[in-house]
C-alpha cells in the first residue's frame, strides 16, 4: 500500500434541461348492474381510447394497457349485502414525444366517457445524454477541486486512487402532474365535438451528479517559511 499522501474531494454538477418525453395515465371506468355488461362497456371505452391514441402515430412512442379489474359494488360497506353494481377499471399508459400535440391529446382523452387523465409527467429518457454530461462535469469538478487543494499546499496531483459515483437523479418535484376528469355520461348537449386543447408548458428537468474521489499528491513541504 502506497504511503503517498492523498486528497479526498467531492465533485458535483447540476444541469437544467428541457424534457424529452411526457408520460400520461388514462383511467377508464364502467359501472353497470350486470357483470358482463360492465365488462362489455369497459372493453368498448378502452378500445375507443386506444384508437384515439393510435391515431397520433409516431407522436406516441409507447402505449401499454394494464390494471384491468371487474369488482362488485355492495349495497352495504360494513357487512355482506346484495351486489348493487359491477365496476370495471382499466389503465392505459402512454409516452408522448411530440409536445406539439400533447395538449390536444390530453383534452380529447379526458373528454372520453367515464375516463380521466393523470399527467403529464415530464421526464428525460433513461439513456439521455444529459446524464452523461452531468457525470463528466462532476468528475471534472472533482479533479479541479483536488488540484486547487494541492496548489494551496504547494504540491501537485500524482495519481487517482478512487472515483466513486454517488448516483444520478432527476428532481422529482419538478413539473408535477395535473388531472383532467371527463363528466360521466359524455359531452353535454350543444357542446363542441372536440374540446379545446389545453396549454401545457414543459417543466425544466434538474439533473444532479456527484462523485467522490481520492488523489495521491507529491509530499508537500509543510515547514514554516
UniProtKB/TrEMBL annotation:
What is any one GO biological process for this UniProt entry? DNA damage response
Note one Pfam family from the annotation: SIMPL
Source superkingdom: Bacteria
What is the protein's given name? DUF541 domain-containing protein
Q: Which species is this record about?
A: Actinomadura hallensis
Amino acid at each position: 500500500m502506497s504511503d503517498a499522501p492523498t486528497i479526498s474531494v467531492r465533485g458535483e454538477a447540476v444541469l437544467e434541461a428541457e424534457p424529452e418525453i411526457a408520460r400520461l395515465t388514462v383511467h377508464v371506468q364502467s359501472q353497470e348492474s350486470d357483470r358482463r355488461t360492465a365488462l362489455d362497456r369497459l372493453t368498448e371505452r378502452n378500445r375507443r381510447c386506444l384508437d384515439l391514441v393510435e391515431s397520433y402515430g409516431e407522436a406516441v412512442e409507447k402505449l401499454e394497457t394494464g390494471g384491468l379489474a371487474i369488482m362488485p359494488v355492495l349495497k352495504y360497506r360494513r357487512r355482506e349485502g346484495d351486489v348493487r353494481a359491477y365496476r370495471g377499471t382499466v389503465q392505459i399508459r402512454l409516452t408522448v414525444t411530440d409536445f406539439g400535440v400533447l395538449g390536444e391529446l390530453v383534452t380529447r382523452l379526458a373528454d372520453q366517457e367515464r375516463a380521466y387523465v393523470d399527467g403529464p409527467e415530464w421526464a428525460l429518457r433513461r439513456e439521455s445524454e444529459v446524464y452523461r454530461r452531468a457525470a463528466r462535469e462532476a468528475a471534472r469538478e472533482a479533479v479541479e477541486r483536488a488540484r486547487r487543494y494541492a496548489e494551496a499546499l504547494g504540491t501537485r496531483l500524482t495519481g487517482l486512487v478512487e472515483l466513486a459515483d454517488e448516483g444520478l437523479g432527476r428532481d422529482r418535484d419538478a413539473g408535477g402532474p395535473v388531472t383532467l376528469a371527463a363528466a360521466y355520461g359524455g359531452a353535454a348537449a350543444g357542446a363542441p365535438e372536440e374540446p379545446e386543447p389545453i396549454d401545457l408548458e414543459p417543466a425544466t428537468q434538474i439533473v444532479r451528479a456527484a462523485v467522490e474521489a481520492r488523489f495521491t499528491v507529491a509530499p508537500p513541504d509543510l515547514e514554516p517559511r
